[in-house]
């Protein structure tokens, strides 16, 4: 199965995003580096707005992920509530 990934800046603002992704994607493999965090997942990775809001304690517009985004792989499907990366269409 192909892997998808997302790489985010390693900073305090993206910490809650990374925690939410890891909790919502149990097969996630996290690679922490000094300036970024790369998360690989087989097949499909889901980022849920509600999961991030739970950790932040405030409203979160899912478009804010793009502020911290370095790179990603996979087909992107976005709604107001979820961002999904996958190779299967």
Please identify which CATH superfamily we are dealing with.
Monooxygenase component MmoB/DmpM
Give helix and strand order, one letter per element, not per position.
EHEEEHHEEE
Total count of strands: 7
CATH arch. level architecture: Alpha-Beta Complex
- What's the CATH class label? Alpha Beta
Q: How many helices in DSSP terms?
A: 3
Question: Distance between termini?
Answer: 14 Å
* Whole-number mean pLDDT: 95
Q: Give the structural class.
A: alpha+beta
* Annotated CATH topology: Phenol Hydroxylase P2 Protein
Parts with pLDDT < 50 across at least 5 consecutive residues: none
Estimate percent helicity: 25-40%
Largest sheet: 4 strands, antiparallel
Could you walk me through the main structural features you see in this protein, from its secondary elements to its overall organization?
By secondary structure, the chain is an alpha+beta fold. The chain is built from 3 helices and 7 strands, in the order βαβββααβββ. The chain has helices spanning 12-24, 49-56, 65-68; strands spanning 3-9, 29-32, 36-42, 44-48, 69-73, 75-78, 82-86. The strands form 2 sheets. The protein has a 4-stranded antiparallel sheet with strand order 2-3-1-5. It has a 3-stranded antiparallel sheet with strand order 4-7-6. Helix 1 crosses helix 2 (49-56). It is globular.
Features:
4-stranded antiparallel sheet, Phenol Hydroxylase P2 Protein, alpha+beta, 3-stranded antiparallel sheet, 3 helices, 89 residues, 28% helix, globular
How is the secondary structure organized here?
Layout: E1 3-9, H1 12-24, E2 29-32, E3 36-42, E4 44-48, H2 49-56, H3 65-68, E5 69-73, E6 75-78, E7 82-86
Antiparallel strand pairs: 1-3, 1-5, 2-3, 4-7, 6-7
């Amino acid at each position: 199965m192909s892997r998808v990934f997302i790489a985010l800046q390693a900073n305090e603002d993206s910490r809650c995003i990374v925690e939410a992704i890891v909790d919502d994607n149990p097969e996630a493999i996290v690679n922490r580096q000094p300036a970024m965090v790369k998360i690989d997942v087989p097949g499909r990775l889901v980022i849920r707005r509600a999961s991030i809001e739970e950790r932040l304690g405030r409203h979160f517009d899912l478009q804010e992920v793009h502020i911290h985004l370095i790179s990603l792989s996979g087909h992107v499907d976005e709604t107001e509530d979820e961002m999904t990366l996958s190779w299967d269409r």
